[in-house]
Amino acid sequence: MQYADNIRISDSERDEVVGELGRHLTAGRLTIEEFDQRVAEVYRSATRLQAHQVLRDLPSTAPAVAAPPVATQPNRPARRRIPGHQQIEWLAWAVAGGINIVIWGIIALATGVMIYFWPVWVIGPWGLVLLGRTLLGRESGCTGFTDALRDDRMRAAASR
Fold first, then answer.
1. DSSP E strands: which ranges in 17-145?
2. Are 36 and 160 within 8 A, CB to CB?
3. N or C: which end of the chain has fewer CB within 10 A?
4. How far is CA 91 from the centre of its chain?
């Protein structure tokens, strides 16, 4: 195994080591300064052995073996979770729609006439777009750009 540790390291392997450092940071085992220093060491490393030296004083974060499922629990399909940014979009839609309905109601009560339900033009199209994006999982195309920007920043920090 000594020979395998002296093999040159790839970027994806460096990212795995940095991910493990991140898990130790969130667990409270590292300070931000220690994390930054160790990430810089990982990106400066040329071999697997050099990269894994930053983990030498930290416990392994290998996932624990899961217990077998209890037979009495019915198998339920995993619920699809709506991402946080889409939850915020739905909340904004509900608040804006509610405000429009309240304004429409106040005007209808003040005039004493049941006026045309114009909030449908605010609630309807916006809601259909949000529903389509939520069901189809469609997101903006900026993630590739932001991921590349983050990688550039991390490499710049590591070269300091």
1. none
2. no
3. N
4. 19
